[in-house]
Amino acid sequence: MNDRSESTSTKLLQGIKVISLSINTPGPVAASRLAGLGAEVTKVEPPTGDPLRIFAPEWYRSLSAGQRIVTLDLKQESDRAELDRLLAEADLLLASFRPSALARLGLDWPTLHARHPRLCFVGIIGYPHPDEEKSGHDLTYLAETGLVTPPEMPATLFVDLAGAERCVTRSLALLLKRERGAEPGQAFVSLYDSADELAGPVRAGLTAPGGVLRGGFPLYGLYQSNDGWIAIAALEPHFAQRLLSELKLAKPDHIELARSFRQRSARDWEKWAAERDLPIVAVR
Questions:
Q1: Which domain holds residue 226?
Q2: 2: Cα separation from own chain's centroid
Q3: Are residues 135 and 156 in the same domain?
Q4: Can you give the CATH number for the domain in which 222 is found?
């Protein structure tokens, strides 16, 4: 991204004020995205803080960059009044509470909308209706939708990150609708639904065992070099033809490709591929 486009993107939401009551991962990632687009974000943390500060301090600092951090105990009347003062000037509230907790805090939509009629609301929940109160986390959503291969643990928080992007999308949609003159609204983002969407390629057969993108096509996969592994993704015909021509192979064949790739180091293959505009990288 050049300097001009980057500068423009950081001002897209200039003037929009966001209050985030979310801790852990999905909410803070979403808030960080909105801040990156120019929104003024105030993050409200409980007295115990955000667990992410302890488990991943550098990531916590990165996600909180450019935001105002306020500590409030929403069970205390005085702190709840302070939140109301913040919400009175805000355009969007992000929260990651179950509906029952929102109701106890007086943040259910009817109550919230009556007090702050300009405010839009996006809530992050685990499961869609009628299971909004059911507990879960990234790992259980992945497991339930067939995206875990025991005993290996997932390499990242796939569902939390996908849910964060959904949260940003819903937030922007609500804000746009309001700016067009419609009544401010609310939306809930279900993390289970995000996992279910991530499982779409598996159900379609693309990434199921033996599928085109999971071992079924020799030019899309992982191969051992003489010192590690490489990933190749020569899906398009021009990439496939160029790769086979450079390797002097008549057709895609797992055995022949494996034999060829064992002849060099992973970094050598990466450099070799870059010189030929081929999608091959060393596995870090």
A1: 212-282
A2: 24
A3: yes
A4: 3.30.1540.10
Mean pLDDT of the chain: 95
- The answer to whether the pTM exceeds 0.85 is yes
**Tally of domains in the chain:** 2
Residue 207, domain member (yes or no): no
3-class SS letters over the chain = CCHHHHHHHCCCCCCCEEEECCCCCHHHHHHHHHHHCCCEEEEEECCCCCHHHHHCHHHHHHHHCCCEEEECCCCCHHHHHHHHHHHHCCCEEEECCCHHHHHHCCCCHHHHHHHCCCCEEEEEECCCCCCCCCCCCHHHHHHHCCCCCCCCCCCCCHHHHHHHHHHHHHHHHHHHHHHCCCCCCEEEEEHHHHHHHHCHHHHCCCCCCCCHHHHHCCCEEEEECCCCEEEEECCCHHHHHHHHHHHCCCCCCHHHHHHHHCCCCHHHHHHHHHHCCCCEEECC
Residue 147 belongs to domain with CATH number: 3.40.50.10540
Give the model's pLDDT for residue 5: 47
Asked whether the beta carbons of 26 and 167 are under 8 A apart, the reply is yes
The amino acid sitting at 231 is A
**pLDDT tens, 108-154?**
999 999 999 999 999 999 999 999 999 999 999 999 999 999 999 99
Span 64-73, mean pLDDT? 97
Could you read off the pLDDT of 253-282 as tens digits, one per residue? 999 999 999 999 999 999 999 999 999 999
Work out the pLDDT band at 284, boundaries 50, 70, 90: very high
